[in-house]
Every structure is written in structure tokens, then in C-alpha cells.
Design a protein that fits this description.
69 residues; mainly alpha
Length: 69
């Protein structure tokens, strides 16, 4: 959810020193930074939040399947 909120907030001119923005950056950057090194930017689009959300969903499903079997 934090990655989604961070992606949405990036569309608006919000002060990067805002405590909420800083908190979201701190908790999402460890996931997004490695993906940015692998994924190329497409123009001004950063696809790392989308890929991160998809990867987290896959990992959650795999973990749920492993726990139920």
C-alpha cells in the first residue's frame, strides 16, 4: 500500500520534506532502488513501483500457498 501511495503522491507537487513523504520514501526505497537499477526508465515513467507491487503479490501468493500446503 505504501508503494501505491508513494506513486500517487509523486504526481502532485508536494514538499519532499513533508514528514509523510519522507516516511513513505524511507520504507519503500529499499524495495524500489534495486528495481530501478534493473529496469530502464521509459521516458519520464518509472515502472519500478508497478513491478514492485506485482512482485510483492507473487511472493505473497507463493508464501500463502506454501503455508496452506
Amino acid at each position: 500500500m505504501a508503494i501505491f501511495v508513494r506513486a500517487i503522491l509523486s504526481w502532485f507537487p508536494i514538499d519532499p520534506h513533508n514528514p509523510v513523504v519522507m516516511f513513505l520514501h524511507e520504507i519503500t526505497e529499499p524495495i524500489l532502488a534495486p528495481l530501478r537499477q534493473v529496469l530502464p526508465r521509459i521516458g519520464f515513467l518509472d515502472l519500478s513501483p508497478l513491478v514492485a507491487i506485482l512482485l510483492l503479490q507473487v511472493v505473497a501468493r507463493l508464501a500463502a500457498n506454501a503455508l496452506t500446503s
